[in-house]
Amino acid sequence: MSPSPEQVIESQRQDWNRVAGGWEKWDRFFDEQMAFLNHRLVADARVRSGMRVLDLGSGTGYPALLATQTVGTNGQVIGIDLALQMLDAARRKATSLKLSNLTFQTGDVTSLPFEQASFDAVTTRFCLMFLPEIQKAVTEIARVLKPNAWLASAVWSAPDKNPYLKIPIDIIKQFIEIPPPDPTAPGIFRLAKPGDLAGMLQPAGLVDISEQEFLGDVQFSVAEEYFSSLMDIAAPIQNLWTKLSPTQQTEARERIIQTAGQYRKGAVIALPIAVRMVAGRKPG
Ligand SMILES: C[S@@+](CC[C@H](N)C(=O)[O-])C[C@H]1O[C@@H](n2cnc3c(N)ncnc32)[C@H](O)[C@@H]1O
Questions:
Q1: Residue 244, domain CATH
Q2: pLDDT tens digits for 56-89?
Q3: Closest to 94 measured CA to CA, from 147, 125, 55, 47
Q4: Ligand 1 center from residue 109 Cα (angstroms)
Q5: What residue ranges of the chain have pLDDT lower than 70?
Q6: Among 130, 131, 164, which is best to mutate for testing ligand 1, by the most ligand atoms less than 8 A from CB?
Q7: What angle do CA 130, 135, 139 make, to 5 degrees?
């Protein structure tokens, strides 16, 4: 029997709280590697000075921190996430950057505790695919957007275009049987196909819907750095990893490092990523 929405939400909360320390440990690295996605989201959401922006599933603060720098001191940004420990890390960063107009609150993005038409833009990076009721969340997003305001979202595209995520999953599968995922079950690749998310924006009443597969890579100096950083932050992959015995883990780690090493380009190991950028506007 598939888990209820409440059970999914609870496991998401536990999963991401568990890896919050890893996100903080690797924060600088991933900020340097993936900041381009934040810039893309802030641009797609047409964020400008003075705006009030909502960031969904903010985790340790991306892209909320960049949105706050963009709206400036006359604007305001609110980040919402299930996982208090991820948000605690985000709050520490906001404090060190002296961003007093950025606040974070715990909550489920499926049920937004905000008035209708109360935000000038909504951003969300790598969150929507983990929701048990995505359409409900998109309807909530449309409700809180002001007329003519934009939603900009980033979700993972297909596994084959994301060796960065697929390498360890494939290698774990060499040791244990993992049943093919229910295509409607929350997970890393739940919104990977063209139209998966874009097709949910239209019923929620959004217009000018755009979708683009945005290609990039994450660069590591050595494959060990790839293995450690991914295992420290990727809660769904950690969940699979813990199903391996210690001996299997030792062997799997070696195979992951060896496979990642095949992506060396000069001084770096460049692991491709493909991100589906989906945006839409609430009609005026
Ligand atoms: C992969 S992290 C992404 C964090 C951040 N946006 C980033 O890109 O670095 C996914 C985040 O979504 C949050 N999340 C998952 N389901 C959620 C829900 N129903 N409501 C709010 N946050 C949720 C998790 O707690 C986690 O912090």
A1: 3.40.50.150
A2: 999 999 999 999 999 999 999 999 999 999 999 9
A3: 55
A4: 9
A5: none
A6: 130
A7: 120
